[in-house]
Amino acid sequence: MPTLRIALAQVNSTVGDIAGNAATVHGWVRRAAEQQAHVVLFPEMMLTGYPVEDLTFRESFVSASRNHLERLAADLDHDGLGGIAAVVGYLDADGPARLGADAAAERGPRDALALLFGGRVVARYYKHHLPNYGVFDEDRYFVAGDTLQIVRLNGVDVALTVCEDIWQPGGPFAVAGLAEVGLVVSINASPYELNKDDVRLPLVRRRGAEARAAVAYVNMVGGQDELVFDGDSMVVAADGTLVGRAAQFDEQLLVTDLDLPSASSDRTGDFGEMHVARLTLDASFPAPAPPVPATLAERLGDDEEVWNALVVGLRDYVRKNGFRSAVFGLSGGIDSAVVAAIAVDALGADRVVGVSMPSGYSSEHSKDDAADLARRTGLDYRVEPIQPMVDSYLSQLKLDGLAVENLQARVRGVLLMALSNQEGHLVLTTGNKSELAVGYSTLYGDSVGGYNPIKDVWKTRVWQLARWRNAAALERGEVEPIPANSIEKPPSAELRPGQLDTDSLPDYHVLDAVLTGYVDTDQGRDDLVAAGHDPQLVDRVLRMVDVAEYKRRQSAPGTKISFKAFGRDRRLPITNRFREGV
Amino acid sequence: MPTLRIALAQVNSTVGDIAGNAATVHGWVRRAAEQQAHVVLFPEMMLTGYPVEDLTFRESFVSASRNHLERLAADLDHDGLGGIAAVVGYLDADGPARLGADAAAERGPRDALALLFGGRVVARYYKHHLPNYGVFDEDRYFVAGDTLQIVRLNGVDVALTVCEDIWQPGGPFAVAGLAEVGLVVSINASPYELNKDDVRLPLVRRRGAEARAAVAYVNMVGGQDELVFDGDSMVVAADGTLVGRAAQFDEQLLVTDLDLPSASSDRTGDFGEMHVARLTLDASFPAPAPPVPATLAERLGDDEEVWNALVVGLRDYVRKNGFRSAVFGLSGGIDSAVVAAIAVDALGADRVVGVSMPSGYSSEHSKDDAADLARRTGLDYRVEPIQPMVDSYLSQLKLDGLAVENLQARVRGVLLMALSNQEGHLVLTTGNKSELAVGYSTLYGDSVGGYNPIKDVWKTRVWQLARWRNAAALERGEVEPIPANSIEKPPSAELRPGQLDTDSLPDYHVLDAVLTGYVDTDQGRDDLVAAGHDPQLVDRVLRMVDVAEYKRRQSAPGTKISFKAFGRDRRLPITNRFREGV
Question: How far apart are CA B467 and CA B473, in angstroms?
């Protein structure tokens, strides 16, 4: 049985930065070579970043991806790294870059994989299964491949696949089984969802069984716009044994020695659903010595997992967009307190500016709690009272009620944007998912900002995360970042005297239970009532979601709320004219 | 040869308002019956509106669509209208409403067509070709049908198809030809693009030739969110003769008498690409007398066509979202002047509020031009100086340069939103497509608003539209709505003394030529230079588009500029890290 030393490069790629991503590949191939790996695997679309979206449609971008790939192969060889087989995801095209009306297009842009060896691109594979649900729109951008590429490496047959190929039965894994390979390589850009790691291992095992082969599964890590990739790369033997597993949310080179069966078939051509192409790499790899010990990284708990995703997402958004620091309104409430703690974990306290912007309605405890958080975390704390600006509007316009409440939030928004323009910070928004769903926020007010770390987090989980983060600090002997009072006190927007969230909303535990059903799992009014929720409450909450959508229509043209970050693309329904129960 | 009297109901449907849409169908079936029509055709997704987007995923919404359809059939019969065959688009499902990872799903939501007759749904057809490009995302929502339904009506075989079925070769029209039908019905929700009417007639002729049959093509009319449907319904005989054509942008019942061949085939089952199902409607229609005269509506010129699209889009957005009036900043410049004229045409002068918000940098001619437009159009004109509010910020924060420029725009945004909250108007944004593309605007400033009538209009066409609208007024003996000075003067944002757009931007004619290539037709740097543009200019413009994307990242999370309204979904590329020419 030949042994292959396989290195999984679980790394962070940046959309559009082809040169930078190529440099990343170069550096990690060197690290893999230093560990005597025979093969090193990089994630899906490593060279271009993922998702490239409409960049796919630019011929110049496709050319850049293809050209950099060739250059990378040559550069690796030039630097003495041509003897390691490197698998790299990239963007290719064998037809026009923009797909149009012709649904039956057989050529066009490809979500592609290349095998680099000896200074050349020796094999290519085009992704077969294209996902077009949730956060994925790949039918819009890519043409599906129909040829499974098998490469004989050191006497072992290795089938090459990309991401969604492993999520669906049939296709490449089934064909790999018929073609009698020893190993299936799966390169991924698989976004984080809560508990997705609990799904991945059984999935990899199931598909390995379908292919009757070992599976090397490498995933991207890091934040890209609305997505966070959590890594969780792994190697599973043909019998289902977990041989190695990388940590979540960190860059890592996972090196594994795998004993694999010698190649036994040369059959090519038509395998029903796909074609099979084969080639043999003219290389014999020395048996690696000494063997590497197995790495099996521990899984994180739910709250730690979410916290890491939020921190990594924010850190990469700031870095990849060229910012150095962030600013936001620090009210003393739980939402901005949790955003502050995330920002300090992501960027360091010296790059985080929290601005207390009290009005005449702000309570003393709010100002105290904001100052307390600032002391605990060490962030740059400022106080900018808003009453003079609010009064300047009120003395000119005749406003009352909601218009006055919204005015205060908008003055704060203008203030934060002015600081952003003057000092270069990214503005963070601090509204949670529950508030966003029911529209309990002010357009162009507290909704101002380029990134909202908690927009996908229900209010009840915001509290849970605060408690988890404080407990983690205690465990490490550090100061708890979030004041207990911010966690314990009843939430209030403080836009009129004595206001409480419960004046306008049900208790958040009750609210979140209904919203989760309505938004996350598409339940209708009757489903929710059948699930035991009070009918009047359900009607009230659904009505709020409907009105929120209506309010958003006063916002930027075409803006829809999209809860995309954690793998589920749940647009709130446009139901201001559709009443549940009709 | 039997004669069929066919009525095409080119009507306006509203997403989500199933009961209202059913009532519309009822009313127009009655009108068709009064004209002794045998068959009346309604657009795609008539009952639910189009596009329903994520409403598709709600089982309760699918049920509502199905139930209302059955009820509609019964109600029509109850009111003596069961003897006319009504073809109605609706949402159906024969599987789970939410499509997920299983790309091979054979059951699920359907973009469906129903034939109502004698109080019942007698036939259904599921759309075969699902578009997933431009403004369409149908692979995300629907499962494709594979059975062509043919109905024998008064001895004529009629094949039933939906929208995209006519845009692609092969599929339903080819199968209809093999099945030897006399007429193909095509129901559509086909959004407006410039000159799309020039494409439609040859398309209908081409597909009619493929089916060797007459084609009855009915399209929706009216605005729905970012889309505008332009109608342009038509009937084309088997020999390619245009028998009847409806007007653009207006509701209309187009009634046509068609002599059609008697049915000649009974073959059902497998036709290669699709199955064929047949049924005979137990009805013989009396020959209609007297024959209806042919209607052939005249085509509009380009500028008139665009103007109509903008007016209809705004009017329906306001109405369908429950607003009664609109407010916006009236600066005296060309963009807000054109928006004002569109708004007055769409809503009437008494529902339009234009607010002049001069600062210390506003010129006298700007204030004069704004007042002049107000006098010419009769809109509700107000003056709200912003300097006191601007000063209230400046006396608290230390700001200079761009931060001060942006501050002025944001104070105006807060002012407009306060008026919106207090008085209930929809806020209109007035930035043109050229400005948006290069980011020549202020986030949360002049970008504030729920609807932007000219976001898809390049600056050079804004001027052209202004001239066309004034000329049209002269022709009708009316006052020209737009002051000549707003058209002729050099554009300026007036955010600092003596500022002109040309300080920051190339001349708009030069700029638009490059932007059109880069944004509308995906040309890269080298393509644009090869097309004769100055290389330095190209680099400068592309750099501006890149930076604009970067600036938008300071905006709401997940916000992307999407030029969707006119059929092309051109997201500006995220190129702040991809440099053309790499």
Answer: 10
